[in-house]
Write a structure and sequence with these properties.
This protein has 76 residues and is an alpha+beta fold. The protein has one domain. Helices cover 38% and strands 14% of the residues. The protein has helices at 16-29, 55-69; strands at residues 2-5, 8-10, 34-35, 74-75. Strands 1-2 form a two-stranded antiparallel ribbon. A two-stranded parallel sheet has the order 3-4. β3 (34-35), α2 (55-69) and β4 form a beta-alpha-beta unit. The model has no long low-confidence stretch (mean pLDDT 81).
């Protein structure tokens, strides 16, 4: 897990259940914008989430930006 800016943390998980659990936990706290992305990642992974790439990261970025822009705190 890596805190990147302000209310943003990036974490890469390999299974859906812990990703959902984490997203729900963060939503309950109400001080995080939550974006969940699914898809392939480029390997090898970078030394940090910020230095990694792939569709999962792009989808998550789009989702968190939509969550921030629409007043909702979570987008998929």
């Amino acid at each position: 897990m890596e805190r990147t800016v302000g209310d943003e943390v990036q974490i890469l998980l390999t299974h859906a259940e812990p990703a959902l659990d984490l997203a729900l936990h963060l939503m309950r706290r109400a001080d995080w914008a939550v974006g969940v992305g699914a898809g392939p990642v480029e390997t090898p992974l970078g030394p940090s989430a910020r230095q990694s790439s792939g569709q999962a990261f792009f989808h998550a970025r789009e989702a968190v930006e939509r969550a921030r822009g629409r007043g909702s705190r979570c987008r998929w």
